[in-house]
């Protein structure tokens, strides 16, 4: 018998559990440990609430959690309730699937002013992440700016632009829905330090901006290279550029009061304001031979009382786990960190790719585990029973997948009409549903 612990219950964790469960069958027990009583990580806290079809992938993870040989162990924080060394003493292999929840810093003056938030915080706020439920982003101003040209920047901009009615069917949390409805936002500037050809946005997500009830995209035709240059783009990127070109060729709808302004070749130099963010000083850029943005010396002002930096994420380091400072994830060789320690997903390769990218990633690492300790072999470890004993000794109340089902039902029961659920945003509320001390 082999015992495996997966730390983190997001997509990477679940795909790895799925692969290990298939590979090992009755020859292994797999525990998916999460610091929260609610599973699914990025699916619950990261994927946009108006993209319910993406969130539906959690149904597949449900099946994994319901497999006889897999357990969800919630409400256990690795690092404080149990250390990595503690886990490797109990399990044959420990797989870190802790994602990349930390916002990368802009590294410019003024980024700590009130009103400047990282996309992780903003996304966590509207998705009911306990750490960000109290973020209270300033939405009283008419101008907001989003820094970055990736899909997360698009998510943030779209959420700012939507009306209450457009959130029908979504699971945006009530506090965010109410605040966004009261917001005064009229102009959302999306700042990209490079040009349209260099965006990291995908066509489906970009196309949505053309169909918003109250907002029109604004793109400058002069920002594009000659149309022949599009031929060299890979097909997905060409589709995105076509959408941007269409936006540029279309007048903003005068009946819609909000504008989503794509400001390309725009590098933020500093954020200024009297005790809070009021404006971004931006430098116009051009591309050098290698396609990097270089400043031209020309600067201008973009007004913004809310600045969301959506420029990527990093994995928080863990004591005793080798870390790649440059890339912001664990140091690993194809997912292997050391004899018993592995990592998957964004904790392995950084914050890129779609949810589905984590599937081959998890399967590949499971394959490595299988090679190192073939099904049928025995490591003599105590596994989940050992963890249960250790947690009991430390007074930690672990929660199960059935507990999550109870929380899920309570969230569904309190949903507003048309919404699948209203999330509890405090861990103490999850425990209250379970009738346990928070
Ligand atoms: P991303 O795709 O890596 O985009 C980051 C953006 O930030 C890039 O445009 C980058 O520009 C810019 N940037 C980085 N450092 C900067 C700086 N110092 N100043 C100004 N701009 C800077 O990251 P992401 O948007 O966080 O998305 C993470 C992953 O999740 C991606 O793979 C994304 O596709 C995926 N995702 C998918 C969906 C979906 O499918 N619906 C939704 C959300 C996220 P440069 O190119 O110039 O570096």
Overall number of strands: 18
* Molecules bound to protein: NADP nicotinamide-adenine-dinucleotide phosphate
The number of helices is 15
Mean pLDDT: 97
**How much of the residues is beta strand, in percent?**
15-25%
Shape: globular
**What is the gyration radius calculated from CA atoms?**
23 Å
Can you put this structure into words, describing what you see?
With 438 residues, the chain is α/β, with parallel strands linked by helices. Helices cover 31% and strands 19% of the residues. It is built from 15 helices and 18 strands. It has helices spanning 11-24, 42-45, 52-55, 58-65, 84-90, 119-126, 151-161, 174-182, 203-207, 235-249, 346-349, 358-372, 383-393, 401-413, 427-433; strands at residues 2-7, 28-33, 70-73, 93-96, 102-103, 116-118, 143-147, 187-191, 215-218, 258-263, 266-272, 279-287, 293-303, 306-309, 313-314, 323-324, 329-330, 341-343. A six-stranded parallel beta sheet has the order 6-14-7-8-10-9. A five-stranded parallel beta sheet has the order 3-2-1-4-18, sandwiched between helices. A hairpin with a 6-residue loop joins strand 11 (266-272) and strand 12 (279-287). The longest helix has 15 residues, at 235-249. The mean pLDDT is 97. The site of NADP nicotinamide-adenine-dinucleotide phosphate (NAP) has 24 residues, from helix 7.
């Amino acid at each position: 018998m082999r015992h495996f612990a997966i730390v983190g219950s997001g997509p990477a964790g679940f795909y790895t559990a799925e692969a290990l469960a298939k590979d090992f069958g009755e020859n292994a027990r797999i525990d998916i440990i999460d610091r929260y009583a609610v599973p699914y990580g990025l699916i619950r806290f990261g994927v946009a609430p108006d993209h319910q079809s993406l969130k539906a992938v959690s149904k597949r993870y449900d099946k994994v959690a319901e497999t006889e040989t897999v357990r969800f162990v919630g409400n256990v924080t690795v690092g404080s309730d149990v250390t990595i060394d503690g886990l490797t003493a109990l399990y044959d292999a420990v797989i870190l699937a802790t994602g990349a929840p930390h916002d990368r810093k802009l590294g410019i003056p003024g980024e700590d002013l009130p009103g400047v938030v990282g996309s992780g915080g903003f996304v966590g706020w509207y998705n009911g992440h306990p750490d960000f439920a109290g973020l209270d982003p300033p939405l009283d101003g008419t101008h907001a700016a989003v820094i970055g040209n990736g899909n997360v920047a698009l998510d943030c901009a779209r959420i700012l632009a939507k009306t209450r009615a457009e959130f029908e069917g979504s699971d945006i949390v009530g506090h965010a829905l109410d605040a966004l409805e009261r917001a005064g936002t009229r102009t959302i500037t999306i700042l990209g330090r490079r040009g349209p050809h260099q965006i990291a946005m995908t066509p489906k997500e970009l196309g949505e901006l053309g169909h918003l009830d109250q907002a029109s995209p604004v793109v400058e035709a002069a920002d594009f290279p000659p149309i022949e240059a599009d031929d060299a783009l890979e097909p997905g990127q060409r589709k995105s550029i076509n959408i941007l070109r269409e936006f540029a060729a279309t007048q903003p709808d005068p009946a819609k009061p909000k504008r989503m302004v794509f400001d390309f070749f725009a590098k933020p130099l500093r954020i200024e304001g009297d005790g809070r963010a009021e404006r971004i000083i931006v430098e116009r850029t051009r591309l050098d031979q290698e396609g990097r943005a270089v400043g031209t010396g020309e600067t201008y002002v973009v007004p913004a009382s809310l600045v969301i930096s959506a420029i990527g994420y990093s994995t928080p380091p863990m004591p005793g786990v080798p870390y790649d400072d440059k890339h912001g994830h664990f140091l690993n060789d194809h997912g292997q960190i050391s004899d018993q320690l592995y990592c998957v997903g964004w904790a392995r390769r950084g914050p890129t790719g779609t949810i589905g990218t984590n599937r081959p990633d998890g399967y590949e690492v499971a394959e490595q585990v299988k090679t190192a300790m073939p099904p049928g072999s025995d490591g003599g470890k105590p596994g989940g029973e050992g963890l249960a004993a250790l947690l009991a000794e430390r007074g930690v109340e672990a929660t199960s997948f059935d507990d999550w089902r109870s929380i899920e039902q309570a969230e569904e029961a309190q949903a507003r009409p048309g919404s699948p659920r209203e999330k509890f945003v405090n861990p103490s509320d999850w425990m209250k549903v379970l009738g346990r001390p928070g």
